[in-house]
Structure formats: structure tokens, C-alpha cells
Amino acid sequence: MKVNKRDLKIFALGIFSLFIFQSIYDWKQIKKDIISGWNAGYRAE
């Protein structure tokens, strides 16, 4: 089986679209996690 550039593009587009869909669907939790990660990183310095 040969992997083409087209196959890789479709795979990358699928992963990206799943990431976008999950981010929109669970926006409250994503926002909460981003803020807590930012605060934890800011306190580490």
C-alpha cells in the first residue's frame, strides 16, 4: 500500500476538524483548562 500526499492531507484535515469540533462542543471546559494552564505556567516563573 502506497501513501500519497493526498492521503496525508486528508488525514491532517480530519485531525484538525476533530480538534475544532471538540473545542466548539466543549468550549467551557477548554476555556477553563487554558486559564488554569496559563496561571500554573505564570506562577512557575
TrEMBL record:
This is Uncharacterized protein.
